[in-house]
């Protein structure tokens, strides 16, 4: 008797479930009982705000941003950025930046004449001028010693060490002193045995912030 009752109860429960399933749409059951089971939250990190000259962090208020790059292979041009303006990023091009009459000029040092032309450019720069320099390809072979000394007088510690195809970046000031804690110069030499760019040095860069009141 008990076994018969158990079987009848099970049969009735199965029939009731089948009856409900046949008459109630599956979407209704899913939406009613499991409304959020497939709605998983998508976590997205906020897009970082781009800083001037691609700095990781912004310069403090009242500062100019700069970034200078050199090296990384034959096809990669040197770049000079000041206050988010690219003054040099293509061969044989120079640009007058809008910020406080900054000038950028490309000197092809394939003849000694251009070494003297660069010296004239530096000497004619007025007091209170920032000078941002970078090499592409070879900036050493025909760079005369007097030109090196002139750059050394601006504060360069590496210009006398520059070699064939060395990557070199430098920032200097005429008529005022740059802060001691900023990046001013970096150099990387060509080495066919170790460089990944077939004798061209890997890319180097310097960047920083310069207080406006210094200029």
UniProtKB/TrEMBL annotation:
Location in the cell: Secreted
Domain ILEI/PANDER span(s) in chain numbering: 104-175
Keywords: Disulfide bond, Lectin, Secreted, Signal
GO molecular function: carbohydrate binding
Signal peptide region: 1-22
One Pfam family it belongs to: ILEI
Presence of the UniProt keyword Lyase in the record: no
A single cellular component GO annotation: extracellular region
Keyword set includes Secreted: yes
PROSITE patterns in UniProt: GG_LECTIN (PS52031)
Family: Belongs to the FAM3 family.
Protein name per Swiss-Prot or TrEMBL: FAM3B protein
Species the sequence originates in: Grallaria varia
Gene: Fam3b
């Amino acid at each position: 008797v008990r076994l018969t009752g158990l079987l009848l109860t099970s049969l009735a429960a199965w029939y009731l479930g089948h009856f409900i399933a046949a008459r109630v749409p599956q979407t209704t059951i899913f939406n009613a009982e499991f409304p959020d089971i497939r709605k998983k939250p998508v976590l997205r990190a906020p897009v970082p705000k781009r800083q001037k000259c691609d700095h990781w962090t912004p310069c403090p208020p009242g500062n100019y941003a700069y970034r200078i790059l050199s090296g990384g292979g034959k096809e990669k041009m040197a770049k000079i950025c000041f206050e988010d303006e690219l003054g040099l990023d293509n061969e044989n091009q120079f640009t007058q930046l809008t910020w406080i009459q900054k000038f950028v000029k490309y000197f092809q040092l394939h003849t000694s004449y251009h070494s003297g032309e660069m010296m004239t450019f530096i000497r004619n720069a007025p007091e209170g001028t920032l000078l941002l320099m970078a090499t592409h390809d070879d900036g050493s072979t025909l760079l005369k010693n007097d030109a090196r000394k002139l750059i050394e007088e601006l504060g360069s510690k590496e210009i006398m060490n520059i070699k064939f195809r060395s990557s070199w970046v430098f920032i200097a000031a005429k008529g005022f002193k740059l802060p001691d804690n900023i990046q001013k110069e970096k150099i990387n030499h060509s080495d066919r045995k170790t460089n990944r760019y077939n004798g061209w040095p890997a890319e180097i860069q310097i960047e920083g912030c310069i207080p406006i009141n210094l200029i």
